[in-house]
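Purine nucleoside phosphorylase structure dump, as promised
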Amino acid sequence: METFVINNDPLPHFTIPSWTKLLPDLSVGFSTRIGGQSVGNYDSMNLALHVGDHKEHVIANRQKLMSIIGFSYDAWTVAEQIHGNHIEIITDEKRGRGRFDQKDAIPATDGLLTDEPDILLTSYYADCVPLFFLDPKKRVVGLAHAGWKGTVLKIAEKMVEAMVKHYQSSIKEIRVAIGPSIGQCCYEVNHQVIDPLREAIDNLPQDAIIDKKNGHFDLDLKKINRQILINAGILYENIEISSLCTSCNPDLLFSYRRDQGLTGRMASWIGLRRDEGV
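structure tokens r here:
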């Protein structure tokens, strides 16, 4: 069964029902390219300010999504993604960074964690692997952006380590969801990518790399990130993985490779709504 379930009412987006059953005040999801104001290469629900789209369209798209998932736009929190493995702990003073201007985003950060309510962590994608983290006992949520470089740097493992260090999470309680990204069906790479992965990652799944015998390989980054998480101690049954390929779904999802770099970005998000009774 697909982990990420699409909700079409009133704006198409993916959710993780198994997680929201655990925490009803949790909002977690992944957007599509449908239902926004952007035009041209960014048609239509582009949520990233850094790709050349009109700022007013991007902000309107973000505000539309926020109105649907039940957060104030003040909570929308953005980092500058650089394909690294730096993780930032987001507290109230960092809440809302980057929501109006990319220059205000949290600098040089590909992983975000918080245990504070009314902060919506966001991250941006057009083929890279979105990683979602949840500790339902400690009420900790997080996102990480894992392209091939972030995968080599084992950002998934770094997120687990940060949850244990900063929030005293038990590894056995941590849940991870691996979201829609480019699939092995569409992701051909060369030794420049494969060699660092083989050097960095223990117990690489054999079927995650298909050797085409011409110096090129078909790569499954989702499976490799799952193995990194297993190596870090996350229970196999606590890892959910999407089967969706961004490149195979042009009507639904942006893809950097398919669209030759001229494209918008989907957003992953996660946050806990504030208890109105408090």
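The radius of gyration is 18 Å.
lmk if u need the other ones
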